[in-house]
Amino acid sequence: MIKLSNRINAEKILKNRGYKLTKQRKVIIEALSNRGGPYTANEVFSLVSNKYSGINFSTIYRNLELLVKLGIVEKLNINDECCHFKLAGKNHHHHIICNKCGEIKEIDICPFKEIVNINKFKELDFQPIEHRFEIFGICSKCRSKE
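The chain above was modelled as a monomer; its predicted structure follows.
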């Protein structure tokens, strides 16, 4: 079952942008809401195909990309192999990622806030719209195993 606030927010965002909360989108949001994530598109497909028979991978991927575009889902480029997806958080945040076990945690710091007003952007006549910032390292659990 989709958490009510996630469903209402997603439905509102979709409706305001001219889209519907289709069954496919609903089960994707439900899977991400119930399980947390982040998940690869293949993992989302596995979670969703158990509840929605007949859905194919391309439908999952297209809807994930749309939900990312609308800000309902976050797309994380954790490594060069594939992207991961999770429901977007309410507050702006970034991630710390363990290189050994792959654990991902949100952090509420943003170094971009410090540099957004740098004169270099003005010199280049460039207005930043979005950014990504992940910190990679080794978590305490993995360090204690060493």
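The chain has a mean pLDDT of 81.
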